[in-house]
Design a protein that fits this description.
Order of helices and strands: HHEEHEEEEEEEEEE
Helix content: 10-25%
Number of helices: 3
Structural class: alpha+beta
Radius of gyration: 19 Å
Number of strands: 12
Length: 226
């Protein structure tokens, strides 16, 4: 899979295309992975209709290294210098969905990472103020995935990072961003809700599918380094 990713990077450079940070992050997260232990793992949610879930935060160092390698090759090929979209505080956010031990067998779930309500809060549980966020990335429409019997899916959601932007300081993931304190001593926690969705393509409905709702407990964001 490493070879497939490097080949795609080479083809993109040959035809003058540059993956967006989110596309590169998804590609790296799905094809390369990391041997590092997760930076932070949330508690499992309560079981709902045979499934349970949790949030996982992992290091983005391999994604950052891939971006730098790609940009070095791009500049050698005569491309212009692009701004570095990554910071030292970049992380990868995942959702684990597990089929709780039962007699139900495999479970179909209509899923989209862009239809997930997110919440960012401090150690006291006070929610951070959400602010408008625009990114250059395709919007994921709801579609079917299958959670195999007695198995766990590790689903990449997106990159999360702290950034200064137009006079404020924020933490963002996908199409969501929150105004946060610039003080490194303030700790923040990310939580989400995974709900039953309707498929985006008409005629693809399934009579038997997951109909639950998972309230994913907060996961602590790693301590900032910048």
């Amino acid at each position: 899979m490493r070879r497939g990713l490097l080949n795609s990077l080479g083809l993109s450079l040959l035809f003058g295309a540059v993956l967006s940070p989110c596309e590169l992050g998804a590609e790296a997260a799905s094809q390369i992975g990391t041997d590092d232990a997760p930076l932070s793992v949330g508690a499992w949610s309560d079981v709902s209709d045979g499934l349970r879930g949790r949030l996982v935060i992992e290091s983005a160092r391999e994604v950052v290294a891939l971006w730098q390698k790609r940009m070095d090759a791009y500049k050698k090929a005569g491309g212009r210098t692009l701004p570095d979209p990554y910071s030292a505080d970049e992380v990868l956010v995942y959702i684990d969905i597990e089929e709780a031990p039962s007699d139900q067998g495999p479970m179909d779930i209509c899923y989209s990472r862009d239809y997930i309500p997110w919440r960012l809060s401090d150690a006291d549980g006070t929610g951070a103020a959400e602010i408008p966020m625009t990114i250059m990335a395709p919007f994921d429409l709801p579609g079917w995935i299958t959670v195999p019997w007695r198995s766990t899916l590790h689903l990449f959601v997106g990159e999360g990072n702290y950034r200064s932007w137009q006079g404020d300081f924020r933490f963002g993931i996908r199409y969501h961003a929150w105004e946060v304190s610039p003080a490194k001593s303030v700790r923040y926690y990310l939580s989400a809700t995974l709900d039953n969705l309707e498929p985006a393509i008409p005629g693809t409905e399934r009579k038997i599918h997951w109909k639950g709702k998972l309230v994913l407990p907060p996961v602590e964001l790693p301590t900032r380094v910048q």
